[in-house]
């Protein structure tokens, strides 16, 4: 069954993906309750946790870097038949929750401003004056994506997500948003890529947490659901989950196969080493022509026209689209297409349901792979949700790498399951928090951040944002 996905929506989404949330967390003062006992009575095991608690307690007290580590999970919503996936964050004092697209393809956090002049109809907006902790940075913010742009100003405030909090997260409050960029109830976007591509130049929320040691393990992991082939699909469905600080082993089986992020940390960029369609492999060049940004904020999969064309050569009856379908390929809906991508050695197959981006007539379908000629410094491939629905994906901070694993039966069971409730925005309790300004990721103070020339990175960010992003 194919969902009647409106084309305007389809195109809007395929061009608005690259979005990612930022991390903000604060350390909480809690420490392990210790039983009073003579040191001699402690077992070796107890000695370990005692020592750790002592260290954490002292470092907390004297403002050291070691903080309580933790883990957390946010449930997501699948919007408009797999077009986008969003989750909730909370901003301010008192905290107010907002739904934001979770985007590993960009690095800025922004939300609609309560003084929004255009583009914020029917979405919750942030009233900066209602938060006692909001700090106006008096700096303008501007971001351009293929499907539009958003602009406003920068500020900082407490931002919470998945049980983590960053006390002074810098983000944008946008008062001008292009029409159609925000689809109710989504109020903004949380960029989850690296700081070097942030238009705001601020440390992203996730990176503040990862570099600040707030996570047990320096990973974020996604499970995305599939509803596009469910004839009963509603505009909002259960979207899966994102975990921070751990991987949820009930959602995957086997090993997580990691591939190093290539180049300086910008996008979650890895080398694509294999591509097949209908069992035939399309040979790929090595090096940057096969670098792929792994992007939860992009609906489909974009790549160089030469290689995209070769995919469709393997599919009977496929032809290049024109007019509105320029850059896309059309193929008979009754053809089951098997395809796969490989990163580092292992092949990951894409279900035939995900190979279909949408149905355009009684018998014709659009393929999920489209021409993306980013040129120059932008990633050659943008691998979005059409692929990511087929795997458990892990974004590891250190060493910077992207991992994939096979989804478990439990994870697969959520696909097309209309009985799983759509999560609503929540403001959970905070298990761990960091201060963004005290972190290593903040650049100049320690050599830990990016070493690439700012000009090149800016061009890269603008190049891809201009094709795919939206504010
Ligand atoms: C920040 O302050 C400036 C004036 O300095 C004002 O124009 C702007 O609206 C304020 N921004 C926010 C997000 O409150
Ligand atoms: C949707 O696609 C998946 C994977 O190809 C398949 O297992 C499932 O049966 C499909 N569901 C429907 C309703 O067609
Ligand atoms: C792991 O995933 C399962 C299945 O979705 C869920 O029930 C469980 O709560 C998750 N665990 C954590 C710690 O989030």
UniProtKB/TrEMBL annotation:
Similarity section: Belongs to the peptidase A1 family.
Upper taxonomic lineage: Eukaryota, Fungi, Dikarya, Basidiomycota, Agaricomycotina
UniProt KW keywords: Aspartyl protease, Disulfide bond, Hydrolase, Protease, Signal
GO biological process, one term: proteolysis
Pfam family, one: Asp
Domain Peptidase A1: 85-405
Active site (record annotation): 103, 295
Signal peptide (UniProt feature, chain positions): 1-17
Domain of life: Eukaryota
GO molecular-function terms, A-Z: aspartic-type endopeptidase activity
UniProt entry tagged with the keyword Protease: yes
Disulfide-bonded cysteines: 116-120
Designated name of the protein: Aspartic peptidase domain-containing protein
InterPro entries for this protein: Aspartic_peptidase_A1, Aspartic_peptidase_AS, Pepsin-like_dom, PEPTIDASE_A1, Peptidase_aspartic_dom_sf
């Amino acid at each position: 069954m194919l969902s009647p996905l409106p084309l305007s929506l389809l195109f809007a989404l395929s061009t608005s993906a690259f979005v990612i949330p930022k991390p903000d967390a604060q350390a909480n003062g809690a420490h392990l309750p210790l039983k009073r006992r003579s040191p001699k009575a402690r077992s070796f095991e107890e000695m370990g946790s005692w020592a750790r608690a002592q260290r954490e307690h002292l470092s907390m007290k004297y403002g050291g870097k070691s903080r309580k580590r933790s883990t957390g999970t946010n449930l997501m919503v699948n919007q408009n038949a797999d077009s986008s996936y969003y989750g909730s964050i909370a901003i301010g004092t008192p905290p107010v929750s907002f739904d934001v697209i979770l985007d590993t393809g960009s690095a800025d956090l922004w939300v609609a401003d309560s003084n929004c002049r255009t583009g914020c109809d029917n979405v919750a907006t942030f009233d900066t004056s209602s938060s006692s902790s909001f700090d106006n940075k008096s700096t303008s913010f501007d971001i351009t994506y293929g499907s539009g742009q958003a602009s406003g100003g920068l500020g900082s405030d407490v931002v919470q997500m998945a049980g983590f909090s960053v006390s002074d997260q810098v983000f944008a409050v946008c008062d001008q948003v292009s029409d159609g960029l925000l689809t109710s109830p989504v109020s903004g976007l949380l960029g989850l890529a690296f700081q070097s591509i942030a238009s705001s130049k601020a440390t992203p929320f996730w990176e503040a947490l990862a570099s600040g040691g707030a996570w047990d393990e320096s990973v974020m992991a996604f499970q995305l659901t599939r509803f596009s082939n469910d004839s009963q699909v509603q505009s909002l469905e259960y979207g899966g989950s994102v975990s921070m600080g751990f991987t949820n082993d009930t959602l995957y089986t086997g090993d997580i196969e990691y591939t190093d992020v290539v180049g300086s940390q910008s996008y979650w960029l890895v080398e694509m080493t294999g591509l097949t369609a209908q069992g035939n492999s399309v040979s790929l060049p090595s090096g940057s022509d096969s670098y792929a940004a792994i992007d939860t904020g992009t609906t489909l999969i974009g790549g160089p026209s030469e290689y995209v064309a070769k995919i469709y050569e393997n599919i009977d009856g496929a032809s290049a689209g024109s007019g509105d379908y320029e850059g896309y390929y059309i193929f008979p809906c009754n053809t089951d297409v098997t395809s796969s991508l490989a990163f580092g050695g292992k092949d990951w197959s894409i279900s035939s349901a995900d190979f279909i981006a949408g149905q355009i007539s009684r018998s014709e379908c659009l393929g999920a792979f489209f021409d993306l000629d980013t040129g120059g410094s932008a990633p050659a491939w943008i691998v979005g949700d059409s692929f990511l629905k087929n795997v458990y994906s892990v974004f590891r901070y250190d060493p910077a790498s992207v991992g994939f694993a096979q989804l478990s039966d439990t994870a697969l069971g959520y696909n097309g399951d209309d009985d799983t409730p759509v999560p609503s925005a929540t403001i959970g309790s905070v298990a761990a928090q960091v201060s963004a300004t005290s972190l290593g990721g903040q650049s100049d103070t320690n050599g830990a951040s990016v070493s690439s020339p700012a000009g090149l990175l800016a061009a890269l960010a603008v190049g891809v944002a201009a094709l795919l992003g939206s504010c």
